[in-house]
């Protein structure tokens, strides 16, 4: 069965991630994986930043920079892809960033309020 015929569920994506260099990624599949990776990173960082009491612009920018670096590490090291085949660094780093920022801000605010008020 070809990749296009398989249902695209969590098990499908985990199987492709485990194949690393042997996996051939469709652009849409790669974007889906990066999008959901960014959402998880945003929620985890929001909880950590909130519980740690990190505030202000420095906290926000440290998330954005860390998130971009983790995303780059994910597609270069873990997934083993050549970014030029998928539109370059800019396209891959921007994938899921706005949603991730929203997830981060929500969890950061809720965690900070729960711990420090």
Automatic annotation (TrEMBL):
GO terms for biological process: mitochondrial respirasome assembly. GO terms for cellular component: endoplasmic reticulum membrane; mitochondrion. It comes from the Eukaryota. It is found in: Endoplasmic reticulum membrane. This is Rab5-interacting protein. Keywords: Endoplasmic reticulum, Membrane, Transmembrane, Transmembrane helix. It is a multi-pass membrane protein. Belongs to the EMC6 family. InterPro entries: EMC6-like (IPR029008), RCAF1 (IPR010742). The chain crosses the membrane at residues 40-65. PANTHER family: GEL COMPLEX SUBUNIT OPTI, PROTEIN C20ORF24 RAB5-INTERACTING PROTEIN.
């Amino acid at each position: 069965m070809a990749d296009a015929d398989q249902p695209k569920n969590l098990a499908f994506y985990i199987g492709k991630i485990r194949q690393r260099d042997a996996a051939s990624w469709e652009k849409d599949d790669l974007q889906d994986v990066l999008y959901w990776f960014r959402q998880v990173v945003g929620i985890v960082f929001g909880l950590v930043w909130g519980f740690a009491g990190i505030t202000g612009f420095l906290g926000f920018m440290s998330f954005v920079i860390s998130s971009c670096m983790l995303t780059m590490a994910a597609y270069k090291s873990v997934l083993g892809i050549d970014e030029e085949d998928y539109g370059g660094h800019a396209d891959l780093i921007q994938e899921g960033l706005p949603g991730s920022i929203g997830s981060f801000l929500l969890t950061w605010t809720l965690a900070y309020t729960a711990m420090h008020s």
